[in-house]
Specification:
mainly alpha, 13 helices, about 75% helix
Length: about 350
């Protein structure tokens, strides 16, 4: 059965989540309508607000696509955050140490090398899973912490730029992705992320490797019996997942920060997992879900400033969105997988 978005159902679930969020605000003693107005105005009310929302949505869209691609092959790539950080770090080094190239060659090369860094970092848990049986949830999660602390070490010590902030030198101007909605930080990384969403959709729905990846995810035993090399396509899905996450990290460095800053990611990789589920594991659904989460991030900060509502309450709304939209689908999806495997 072809996967659809069923937008009316998703819109209803999101509306219900906001309704419950407003009830939480009311119980906590804050004006819900004023807070809701400030949230939407802070996300979409001005040119700067829109730019900030889409800037926040961009890395989450990349990481949600990365998780989706792995999940559709039956793999829980929980380590998207680590691959995102490695891709960001490699892109930063490429922007700093590669010289003599002009834009856009330098920017595209640095972005590609960031994706390659994420892909290579994803290859290790992929090989551990398919050849040694190591569970990818454990290996990818632990490797995320390795990436976090290893990159932190480099920007605090050997590669630290002068000053008190733990960060690298600025990347060359030829490696920077141009801003597309000045004076906001929204960069060319956003349309690139949109392009990747359509590319992943085309890959999964219109190509033989994409079909094979989905078949392996639905039923690896049946796929193996029909001549589909399960290990090959699980590794492929894992590596492509890491590549997209690495591109996302590179886009954040080259488009927003201009250098690798320690702790620049507030957890984009973990958010991507939730966004992928809210988007119903559909590449195009991830676009809308990432913008929704970007709205909650950007609008939540404005809501806090205007109404004095704690930012934590906007995170409660985000959690309610995940609960209402993603949880029932995720349970049904896993239940369907278990039923199909029991029928063999």
């Amino acid at each position: 059965m072809k996967r659809g978005l069923r937008l009316p159902l998703e819109v209803f679930a999101v509306g219900l989540a906001f309704l419950f969020g407003m009830l939480v605000l009311l119980v906590a003693g804050y004006p819900p309508l004023q807070a809701l107005f400030a949230l939407f105005r802070g996300a979409f009310g001005t040119r700067n607000a829109l730019g900030q929302t889409l800037t926040q949505a961009t890395p989450i869209l990349f990481t949600s696509l990365a998780f989706l691609l792995g999940f559709r092959s039956g793999i829980f790539n929980i380590g998207v955050e680590g691959q995102f950080l490695v891709g960001a770090f490699v892109a930063a080094l490429s922007g700093i140490f590669i010289r003599g190239l002009s834009f856009p060659v330098h920017a595209l090369l640095a972005l590609f090398l960031g994706g390659l860094g994420g892909a290579i970092y994803a290859l290790f848990p992929a090989l551990l899973k398919v050849y040694l049986g190591a569970h990818e949830v454990i290996t990818t999660m632990m490797l995320s912490y390795v990436a976090l602390y290893l990159t932190s070490y480099f920007v605090n010590y050997p590669l630290k730029a002068p000053g008190w902030v733990a960060q690298t030198e600025l990347v060359a101007s030829s490696a920077r992705l141009p801003r597309i909605l000045p004076p906001t930080q929204l960069s060319l990384a956003f349309p690139i992320a949109i392009g990747f969403a359509f590319l992943v959709f085309w890959f999964l729905e219109r190509t033989v490797p994409g079909f094979s990846i989905k078949a392996v995810g639905m039923n690896p035993e049946a796929s193996e019996s029909r001549g589909i090399p399960v290990r090959k396509y699980q590794v492929l899905a894992f590596v492509l997942s890491g590549f997209i996450a690495g591109i996302g990290g590179g886009g954040e460095i080259l488009g927003v920060h201009g250098r690798f800053v320690d702790g620049f990611s507030p957890g984009y990789g973990w958010d991507g997992i939730a966004v992928s589920l809210v988007g119903r594991l559909h590449p195009l659904g991830c676009i809308f879900a990432s913008v929704l989460f970007g709205m909650l991030r950007a609008g939540g900060m404005v809501m806090t400033r205007v109404t004095k509502v704690p930012l934590d309450l906007s995170l409660i709304i985000q959690a309610l969105v995940i609960l209402f939209v993603a949880a029932p689908f995720f349970i049904r999806y896993l239940g369907g997988l278990l039923r199909r495997r029991r029928m063999l």
